[in-house]
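Severity: low
Component: inverse-folding endpoint
Summary: output formatting inconsistent between runs
Steps to reproduce: submit the following structure tokens with default settings.
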């Protein structure tokens, strides 16, 4: 399908440009990051035949144009939600990304209704996959650097939704750090 391939390549090229721009910066605006997330998620929707939907919500007290966040930290969480959660799930697949302000911190929640992190880990172990996922490893290193160098008070927590409620599936990742306004 030439039209679909052309749209994918166009989105991919846009993503590469944004990645290069963001990788040169320590901080970007939340608005720029949301644009980057949308480009990535739309590209993955094309790749996976619109098999999932996403929503991105910004709380009313968060000024996306004025709020600065560390670059290149949210997209790996969305990528993990798709690749490790949703691609193994059945039914209506969804990702919700939410940015809110709480106690002078920006809180980012990435939640999917996939198979959950525990089930994903079991699948990986059962398949003896040679693939070594570096996304979370790199993110944890970046958090350490942000805390040491910029005193961001950054933290990451990962919750398997099934552990708290047997009727829920999926994973919730909460990334938070000190609020920075321009």
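Observed output (run 2 of 3):
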């Amino acid at each position: 399908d030439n039209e679909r391939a052309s749209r994918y390549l166009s989105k991919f090229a846009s993503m590469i440009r944004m990645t290069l721009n963001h990788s040169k910066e320590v901080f970007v605006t939340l608005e720029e990051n949301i644009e980057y997330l949308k480009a990535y998620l739309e590209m993955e929707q094309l790749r996976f035949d619109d098999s999932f939907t996403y929503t991105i919500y910004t709380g009313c007290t968060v000024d996306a144009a004025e709020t600065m966040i560390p670059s290149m930290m949210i997209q790996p969480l969305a990528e993990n939600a798709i690749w490790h959660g949703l691609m193994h799930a059945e039914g209506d697949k969804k990702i919700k990304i939410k940015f809110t302000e709480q106690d002078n911190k920006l809180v980012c929640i990435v939640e999917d209704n996939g198979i959950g992190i525990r089930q994903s880990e079991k699948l990986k172990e059962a398949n003896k996959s040679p693939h070594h996922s570096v996304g979370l490893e790199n993110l944890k290193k970046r958090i350490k650097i942000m805390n040491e160098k910029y005193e961001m008070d950054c933290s990451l927590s990962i919750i398997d939704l099934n552990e708290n409620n047997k009727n829920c599936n999926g994973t919730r990742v909460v990334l938070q750090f000190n609020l920075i306004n321009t």
